[in-house]
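Report of the visiting student (M.T.), summer placement. My assignment was to run the structure pipeline on a short list of targets and document each run. The first record concerns Phosphate transporter.
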Amino acid sequence: MDPHDYSWILAVSFILSCLNAYALGANDVGNAFATAVAAKTLTLRQACAIALFTEFGGGVLLGASVADTIKGNIIDTSLFTSNPALLMLAMMCALCGSSFLVLAATLKGFPVSSTHAIIGAIIGTGIAAFGVDTVDWGWTGVGKIVASWFISPFLSGFISAAIFLISKYTVLVKPNSYARALKVIPVFFFLTFLIVTFFILYDGAPDLNLKNENPGMIVGIVFGVGIVAAVFAYFYLVQVIRLRVEIRPQRPLYQDLLYFYFGRPHLPAYVGDDAALPLCGNEPEHAEPHHDEAPQPLIPEVSRSNSYGSTTDEPLAHGSVGGVNEAKPPQVDAAQKSWFGKALAAASSGMDKDIVSAESEAQAHMMSQATKFETRTEETYSFLQVLSCVSMSFAHGSNDVGNAVGPISAVWYIWQNAAVAGTKTDVPVWHLAIGGACINLGLLTLGWRVMKTLGNKLTYQSPSRGFCTEIGAILTVLTASKLGLPVSTTHAITGSSAFVGLASSGSAKTVNWRLLGWCFLSWIVTVPIAALISGLLFAMIVNSPRV
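After the run finished, the structure tokens were exported:
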């Protein structure tokens, strides 16, 4: 065959690949930041700004230079050896089925696995091309996908709930919870950096090829990074946290970060009993805002909640962790904008959405049933949550950007070499860069929809809950993947949110079970619907009349 006769397939595949990466960004990236935004640790704009660097950086700097041609080897690429152009067409149809399904789920706010979507789409093209026998229906194929619907959310949920309960009964419900929170900051920093460093080095950066190195060296590096992080937190970060939490009025954030240069205001030697302080988000509606104790966000905003759960229009002090109900920027008539301004406004339209406030009385009632914890303690946990969600996003970028561009890389290889690449395909850096850019665009415009579902719409979120949710999900995905258990990050974070919601209050009323059921249904239909779309499209093109 002359592969250049099929340049149209390459062109269409590139467009669909960008759409697939866009859909992945709109749906999957929100997993890492949904709880942080819902808990008022970060604003939606701040989360999007951070993700621009973590997702793109993780994908380009640590992403795989070799990706699976067909994710999971669920069908045999050798079947296409005699007709490579057929595999080009199959990948094009698979990208179409996957991208449109994930986009449709995103528009409805349902968190689905983009990896399962592309696998389902490839199953559809495989069946359309060679029949049902070409698909691996056993445990190593479709069986793993079905198992992941149950293993991922339940395993992650149990781990996250266990972490939260330990934190709850050792810190959160104690009378001096703020003082205890400051003491455990170095411990959590050690554990978080230990988990994330191991994840990035051993699994998230395949180009480093550390799997073949001495395990003792990896363990030494991981523990070394964890110890350095704990020392940093103990001697520096705890002081910054106290400056942000205890000193009112706050000064600009950079002055607190550089307190050794600008000077440190006097802090009491002992933090004291917090029992008399307002509970986080637990004030009655008629209560006056607690200006002195209100948690302040890490980056300046125009307005925010005065506590984790009630909203006021108090102006923000300079800098901090938290804050989400940002004021919308002044509206400018579209006719007065340049074409660049219109494009920029469209690209950033998703950053001005309110994903925190309750949309209905039922949601407000669900949030009111949740146990609230002391404000200063929650604000201390917000520093930990920034760390956990950034780490989760960077690790996601290092793993999933390569997966997003795997199919187009297969098409590119066939177009260049007129042969099937096999189970692995080289991924040029510029493929990763384009994929990362499209992922970021998807997050900026539509990412807020899934964030809203995984945030307060599913269960009440706060920094302590969000931190345990994210750490539990990361630990689950890392451990289970090493044990050969099928897991999905999307399913894991959803299960963790629900289980932590249950564990925080011990009441089933704190979880939106109807929404959780719809999410589970969306997981089940992901594979068959993607397979149906791609399979029908493939069959129509292959069997269409030719002149």
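Confidence is low (pLDDT under 50) at residues 273-329. The two ends are 19 Å apart (CA to CA). I thank the supervising group for their guidance throughout the placement.
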